[in-house]
Amino acid sequence: MASCKISKFSFSLAFGLLWALALFFAGFGNLMVPGYGEAFLKTMSSLYPGYDGASSMRSVLIGTGYALVDGAIAGFLFAWFYNLFVRISGAKEEKAGENNLNDKSE
């Protein structure tokens, strides 16, 4: 059975951009409509040093930068673990297949 691996670089980039866009739009939405996403932004401000929610466009951009890096790291780790588990399960499947062939030849 063929195994499918994820490109760690591509997945990191995609996940980083997705998370950065999510934080950017939540922060920008809060600037346009005060109170929008406030609980989410307060949670993110407790995780990212120097980010204080969406009090200004500068803060939104700082949070977006943190989210880009944070998301890229999370995406890389996800892809790395996924590829590791694919390799482990693929080795087990190959060994099981070899055992089945040996049983049939006897």
What percentage of amino acids are in beta strands?
under 5%
Secondary-structure element order, N to C: HHH
Mean pLDDT across residues: 87
Poorly predicted runs: none
Question: Approximately how much helix is present in the residues?
Answer: over 70%
Q: What is the 3D shape? A: elongated
Total separate domains: 1
Class by alpha and beta content:
mainly alpha
Count of runs of 4 or more consecutive helical residues: 3
C-alpha Rg (nearest Å):
22 Å
Report the major sheet. none
Distance separating the two termini:
23 Å
Total beta-strand segments: 0
Question: Which SSEs are present, and which pair or pack?
Answer:
Elements: H1 8-32, H2 38-47, H3 57-105
Can you give a write-up of this model?
This protein has 106 residues and is mainly α. The chain has one domain (11-105). It contains 3 helices and no strands. Helix 1 (8-32) runs antiparallel to helix 3. The two termini are 23 Å apart. The relative contact order is 0.18. The model has no long low-confidence stretch (mean pLDDT 87).
Task: Give a brief outline of the structure.
Helices cover 79% and strands 0% of the residues. With 106 residues, the chain is mainly alpha-helical.
List descriptors.
mainly alpha
